Amino acid sequence: MTKTVAIVTGASQGIGRATAMRLAQDFSALVLVARNRTKLEETASAVREGGSEALVIDRDLAEPTAAATVVEQTLSAFGRIDALLNIAGAVPGLDVFQMTDEQWDVGLELKLHGARRLTVQAWDALRMSKGTVVFTSGNAAMTPKAAAAAVGAINACIEALAKAFAERGIVDDVQVNCVSPGAIMTDRRTAMLERAAAAKEINIAEAKQSFLKQAGIARFGTAEEIADLMAFAVSPAAHWMTGTVLRMDGGEIRSV
Ligand SMILES: NC(=O)c1ccc[n+]([C@@H]2O[C@H](COP(=O)([O-])OP(=O)(O)OC[C@H]3O[C@@H](n4cnc5c(N)ncnc54)[C@H](OP(=O)(O)O)[C@@H]3O)[C@@H](O)[C@H]2O)c1
């Protein structure tokens, strides 16, 4: 039986970790990328328990040379790449009038350029396997806010970038889509709520309720729910779907 290989970035925690664990059901080998080796090894153990091989690559994807290393190590270990899931992201949620050029660069270097470079580096292998790519944006692409301007702007860039790769993918037989999560309860979301609670001088439970009311949703999503959507996006059932943004947000975005 032919091995199937998926690279998952941001696999040390949150949505990336949940996605890697979910994909262990569908792929024979998972390549787990992020900076924290200890946490990546924990994901790797869970992936192996789920029935898949796991390779840990602890690299900072904001470094320009990291993408080539990830692809080289993947091909050296497994010889092919069937799916690339660009999930890593850590865009600073700062006010547009306070954010420095350096802080913009931090967000852009990882979430936009890290994903772009990895996709470019993996493209030849993806062409050979007729593979699939998923980018991760977020609701803020549709509802940018002054208080966290880079989050919206960079997520909108990601959706445009995914479309651009998807156009080339029609010729090259590589499927490219974007998953846009709403408010998902991960460490990143907890940190955002803690900052909001401190700013409003309320407790974390009140900050959660305040967020849900403002967003008009019944609850936060889970990383596992987004992982299931990621798994669908790279499954044979979704093969003809390309250049699409798949949103899962509990109904937060009200526009068509
Ligand atoms: N949670 C939400 O509500 C939500 C909503 C919309 C979109 N999203 C998007 O979904 C993605 C995952 O979010 P999450 O909530 O799961 O976040 P998270 O819990 O903070 O996880 C972020 C992941 O990115 C990795 N990462 C950060 N900087 C990195 C770097 N320089 N190089 C390599 N990896 C790096 C982290 O690992 P290390 O620290 O080990 O490097 C971690 O695995 C992000 O792109 C985020 O923008 C999340």
UniProtKB/TrEMBL annotation:
It comes from the Bacteria. Pfam families: adh_short_C2. This is Short-chain reductase protein NovJ. PANTHER family: EG:BACR7A4.14 PROTEIN-RELATED, ZGC:101858.
